[in-house]
UniProtKB/TrEMBL annotation:
It is a multi-pass membrane protein. This is 2-carboxy-1,4-naphthoquinone phytyltransferase. One of its GO terms (biological process) is phylloquinone biosynthetic process. It comes from Thermocoleostomius sinensis A174. One of its GO terms (cellular component) is plasma membrane. It comes from the Bacteria. Pathway: Cofactor biosynthesis; phylloquinone biosynthesis. The lineage of its organism: Bacteria, Bacillati, Cyanobacteriota, Cyanophyceae, Oculatellales.
């Protein structure tokens, strides 16, 4: 596939600049970086009764910076394929300065990796550095040339492993320098809720994705079948937690995760009703963020109580 730069179509003046900047920076999305570190640390606390707060806070800040790099470079790479032509809230379109965004993104990455290096240095162990570098590699492969695996519809799988098993293991390991079955099982649940966000972000973008040759899961499945799949994906989060409690792998308090049923139900209903109306379904990504947030917080609480 040859991808040529496509010129940006300017923003309608009526959309306020402040709103566009908030949509470009997407503050709620950063809970996605914090949650794997919180979950790995919560399971470590449940099993050892100790937390190293210095490592925890350094890891959280590093994760936020690495996710900032991922999002800034996403706007840079997407500006090269033309897929963001109709996206006024792309940072490249807002600033008109691709190289500025590229270098701010790279500075975030270097600072984030420096935080991870500091933890590796304190522990005299390179394990978490290797894992986080692997996550960054997957993040690059999602959107950067020559891979652009997101364009092949592989983003959700990369997202599952990066924010689930890999990041949660790294956080657990940063506290304990070992692994655990409970933290692995918990990471599967977080991987699913994080990938759900990416899955939902594609419902309103089918036309632009098709035009740019991006075969997202929603392009491949169609919006109707995508909407039909959602209750199964959300349901798997509750079914897995119930099964892990029944098997004695999770404390009974983790059933608190059922408190996140309201955003899960809201998400499934909203997408079922609006899957083929881009303007209406476009906010479903943020309902998915809310489900990810509440299920993650309640799962963490279930481990620390
Ligand atoms: C940038 C991401 C999604 C945006 O995708 P898309 O191009 O469809 O969106 P726009 O319409 O807004 O342009 C997220 C991609 C996630 C990626 C598959 C994996 C990233 C891995 C992270 C770098 C790992 C972070 C680890 C941290 C928690 C320690
Ligand atoms: O802008 C987006 O659509 C997303 C940004 C982001 O950082 C992220 C992280 C993890 C899962 C999904 C997403 C997005 O969808």
């Amino acid at each position: 596939m040859t991808l040529k730069p496509v010129p940006y179509t300017p923003t309608p003046a009526r959309v306020s600049r402040k709103k566009l900047w908030m949509a470009a920076i997407k503050p709620p999305m950063y809970s996605v970086a914090v949650m794997p570190i919180a979950l790995g640390t919560a399971v470590a606390y449940a099993e050892t009764g100790r937390i190293d707060w210095g490592i925890f806070t350094t890891f959280v800040m590093a994760a936020i910076l690495i996710l900032a790099w991922e999002n800034l470079s996403n706007d840079v790479f997407d500006s090269e394929t033309g897929i963001d032509r109709n996206k006024p809230h792309s940072l490249v379109n807002l600033t008109g300065n691709k190289s500025l965004i590229f270098w701010i993104g790279n500075s975030c990455l270097v600072t984030g990796i420096a935080g991870i290096l500091a933890i590796a240095w304190w522990q005299q162990d390179v394990t978490i550095l290797a894992i986080i570098l692997l996550c960054c590699g997957l993040g690059y492969a999602y959107q950067g040339p020559p891979f652009r695996l997101g364009y092949q519809g592989l983003g959700e799988i990369l997202c599952f492993f990066s924010f689930g098993p890999l990041a949660v293991f790294a956080a657990y390991y940063s506290q304990t320098q070992t692994g655990s079955i409970a933290s692995f099982m918990a990471s599967i649940i977080l991987g699913i809720t994080t990938s759900l966000i990416l899955f939902c972000s594609h419902f309103h973008q089918v036309e632009d994705d098709l035009a740019a040759g991006k075969r997202s899961p929603i392009v491949r499945l169609g919006t109707r079948r995508g909407a039909q799949l959602l209750p199964w994906l959300c349901g798997s989060v509750f079914a897995l937690t119930g099964a892990f409690v029944a098997l004695g792998l999770f404390p009974v308090w983790t059933l608190l995760i059922f408190g996140s049923l309201p955003p899960a139900i809201k998400l499934c209903r909203h997408v079922r009703a609006n899957h083929n109306q881009p303007a209406r379904v476009s906010n479903c990504k943020f309902i998915a963020v809310s489900f990810h947030f509440w299920s993650g917080v309640l799962l963490c609480l279930g481990f620390v109580l």
